């Protein structure tokens, strides 16, 4: 995030819009990625998930990182990296963390949430 503060990062089930897990990330250095450990989550192949970042801190929307394609170019979505497919940008303006059910501008990659997977048996 481009501004110092605490941000709620949530993992949602796309089909049910249920919250699976969430954590609060405290950004103290805007030039570094920040990771928090969460309780283990069973991730199921071919299931759609949404990662969201609530960028409202103290009732004030904070800046986000947003990468825009040039006007006239094709949509960014969908795209695949590794075994993950990014389908769309989802958004919702709210003072609290809620499921982002509005499809955003498909020429913008915003927020830049990241999820690290650890395989266990």
What would you say this structure looks like, in words?
The protein has 121 residues and is mostly beta strands. The protein has one domain (5-110). It is built from no helices and 11 strands. The chain has strands at 5-13, 19-27, 49-54, 56-57, 60-61, 66-68, 79-81, 84-86, 90-91, 102-103, 108-110. A 3-stranded antiparallel beta sheet has the order 2-1-3, with no helix packed on it. It has a two-stranded antiparallel ribbon with strand order 4-5. 7% of the residues are buried. The model has no long low-confidence stretch (mean pLDDT 84).
List the helices and strands and how they pair.
Layout: E1 5-13, E2 19-27, E3 49-54, E4 56-57, E5 60-61, E6 66-68, E7 79-81, E8 84-86, E9 90-91, E10 102-103, E11 108-110
A few lines on this structure:
The protein has 121 residues and is mostly beta strands. The chain is built from no helices and eleven strands.
Question: Which keywords apply here?
Answer:
121 residues; mainly beta; three-stranded antiparallel beta sheet; two-stranded antiparallel sheet; 36% strand
């Amino acid at each position: 995030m481009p501004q110092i503060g605490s941000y709620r990062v949530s993992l949602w089930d796309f089909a049910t819009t249920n919250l699976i897990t969430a954590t609060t990330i405290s950004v103290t250095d805007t030039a570094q990625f920040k990771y928090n450990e969460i309780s283990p989550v069973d991730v199921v192949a071919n299931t759609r998930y949404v990662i969201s970042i609530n960028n409202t801190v103290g009732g004030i929307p904070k800046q986000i990182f947003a990468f825009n394609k040039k006007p006239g170019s094709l949509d960014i979505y969908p795209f695949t990296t590794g075994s993950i497919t990014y389908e769309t940008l989802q958004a919702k303006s709210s003072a609290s963390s809620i499921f982002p059910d509005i499809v955003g501008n498909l020429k913008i990659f915003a927020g830049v949430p990241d999820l690290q997977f650890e395989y266990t048996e």
